[in-house]
Amino acid sequence: MAQSAAAPLERLIEQFTKFPGIGRKGATRMAYQILSMSPEEAAQLSQAIEDAKTQLHRCKVCQNYTEEELCPICNSPKRDRSVICVVENPRDIAAFERTQEYQGLYHVLHGLLSPMDGVGAEQLCVKELLARLGDDTVKEVIMATNPTVEGEATAMYLAKLIKPLGVRVTRLAYGLPVGSSLEFTDETTLYRALAGRDEL
C-alpha cells in the first residue's frame, strides 16, 4: 500500500487505527487534528496518556481503574455491600452510575468468555469475584454482561459457580436490545433493565 503521508504522520495514523471503531478515515482526521494543536496542547495530550498509563491501576477489590488502592465506589461507606453488579469493562460502570439508581458495588471482568478467541475464565477476573463471596456479606450478584452470545455464556458460567455459594444470581431484564453495548445505552433503558432483572 503506497504511503501518501510523511512517515511520522503515517505512524500516527496507524496507531489511531488500533482503537476500536476507528477506521483509516477517522484515524487520519485524528492525526491531522493533533498536528493542528499548539505544542502546549500536544504536550498536555501526551502527558495525559502517560499519566493514565503510569498512575492508574486496578482496584484490589472490584478491578475498576483507580489511582488509590481502592476505587471511590469500593471505598464509599454509602454503598450497599450486599449487592455486586458484574460488568464486562470499566466503561459499563460509568453507564450504571449515570442512572443514579444503583447503590451497590461492582466487579469488572475485563472481558467475556470467548473460546474462539482463546479467552477462558483464567483470562478474566473470575477468581477475584469468587473471593468476594467468601463471607455472608453479599446476598445478590447481578449479571450485567452485554446481551451477546459471549455475554450470555459468561453470565451462565458465573451463575453455575456462584449459586452453590448460596448467593442469589440475577440477570438484567431485556429492556436492552440484543447485540447492543451497555456503554451506549440510555439511562432510562438501563434503569428499566436493572429494575426488572430476573433470577438465573
The value of Rg in angstroms is 20 Å
Going by CATH, the architecture of the largest domain would be: 3-Layer(aba) Sandwich
Provide the β-strand percentage band: 5-15%
Count of domains: 2
- What best-fitting shape do the alpha-carbon axes yield? elongated
Q: Count of DSSP helices?
A: 8
Based on the structure, what is the oligomeric state of the protein chains? single chain
List unreliable stretches of 5+ residues.
Answer: none
Distance between the termini: 51 Å
Helix content: 40-55%
Helix and strand string, N-terminal first? Answer: HHHEEHEHEHEHEHE
User: Biggest sheet, open or closed, and with what strands and sense?
Assistant: 5 strands, mixed
Structural class: alpha/beta
The largest beta-sheet arranges its strands as: 4-3-5-6-7
Total number of strands: 7
Q: Which CATH top level class of the largest domain fits?
A: Alpha Beta
Overall pLDDT metric:
89
CATH topology of the largest domain: Dna Topoisomerase Vi A Subunit, Chain: A, domain 2
How is this structure best described in words?
42% of the residues lie in helices and 14% in strands. With 200 residues, the protein is α/β, with parallel strands linked by helices. The strands form two sheets. A five-stranded mixed sheet has the order 4-3-5-6-7. β1 and β2 form a beta hairpin.
